[in-house]
Amino acid sequence: MIMLNGEKLAFETYPNGETRVDGERILDLAGESNRLVLKYENDGDLIKLMFVKRFLDDHRYPASLYVYYMPYSRMDRVEGASVFTLKYAANFLNGLNFEQVTVVEPHSDVTPALIDRSSAKYPTVELLDQVVRDTGFDPEKDYLFFPDAGAQKRYGKVKGFRQLVGFKERDFRSGEIRRLDIVGSVDKPGFKAIIVDDLCSYGGTFLLSAEKLREIGAAEVYLLVSHCENSIRQGRIPQSNAIDRIYTTDTMLDPSDTDLIHIYPIGGF
Ligand SMILES: O=P(O)(O)OC[C@H]1O[C@@H](O)[C@H](O)[C@@H]1O
To answer: Mean pLDDT for the chain?
Structure first.
């Protein structure tokens, strides 16, 4: 989905699959400074973004870009013959020559390093206070849990929380989680835990995290992730009782029809 200055752009599709772009609508919305939003739903959004940006260029309108979720941001390294798709997606954005690019909660530092004139925004850190209040979390006796070293690097600097970290081994190619162990120990059972991470896909990481946390005495387990794919609904979390509530944003997820998932609108950040 593409938005221009806060308005969603509608696109039609020709019978052969090509995209029809409404130039009049774009010119109606364009002004002295323009902000495009990329809410990635599929690769077709990249083509739409390109058409809109090029059209704005042709009419001498400058534009910045706000990326809700950077597509391919997890493909941030090469292992064996894997394709470094993040690099190529970043090259694509660089070719569009935005004045500035803001990326919400990138998976790693590789994303802002690859995208020209970019900066990252971490709403999870802002949301943590709200989640602490909603869950009745007590920083004196409850714990934040970071499922892997990447999450610890992103969020471990938050002050005033007791922290536990997971050691996760995942097969890069298949995505299968081989093991997840908790590093660190707890004073006594009966605590609450908030798992903090950037992205939930099928939720395997978080279900396993919640099970391990309950094994060491967690009485309540919550999940805070900025990005949550719709595939969570096909995963095992909704059927299990391991996670009491999920807090996320609408950078990827469609509106929730269950109390289990609480969605904060990203527009406020
Ligand atoms: O376990 P699922 O939900 O499939 O994947 C989410 C995890 O995989 C990583 O990329 C994310 O940072 C998170 O740790």
So the answer is: 95
Helices (H), the chain: 23-29, 44-58, 85-96, 110-114, 123-135, 149-155, 204-215
Q: Which residue from 179, 201, 226 has its CB within 8 A of the most atoms of ligand 1, so it is best to mutate? A: 201
- Which tokens hold the place of 219? 């009485």
Contacts of 123 (CB under 8 A, 6+ apart): 104, 105, 226, 249, 264, 266, 269
Tokens of 1: 């989905």
Q: What is the phi-psi region of residue 247: left when phi exceeds 0, alpha when psi lies from -120 to 50, beta otherwise?
A: beta
CA atoms within a 13 Å half-sphere pointing along the CA-CB vector of 54: 10
> Which residue has the CA at smallest separation from atom 10 of ligand 1?
74
Tell me how far the alpha carbon of residue 107 lies from the centroid of ligand 1, in angstroms: 10
ipTM, two decimals: 0.92
Task: For each of the domains in the chain, give its residue range(s) and CATH number, in order of start.
Answer: 2-121 (3.40.50.2020), 123-268 (3.40.50.2020)
Of the pLDDT bands very low, low, confident and very high (cuts 50, 70, 90), residue 268 is low
pLDDT digits (tens, 9 = 90+) for 85-131: 999 999 999 999 999 999 999 999 999 999 999 999 999 988 999 99
Give residue 190's pLDDT band: very low, low, confident or very high (50, 70, 90).
Answer: very high
Work out the angle at residue 59's Cα, subtended by the Cα atoms of residues 54 and 64, and round it to the nearest 5 degrees. 55
Task: Enumerate residues 6+ apart whose C-beta is below 8 A from 90.
Answer: 111, 114, 115
**Beta-carbon count within 10 A of 145 CB:** 27
Ligand 1 pocket check for 201: Cβ under 6 Å? yes
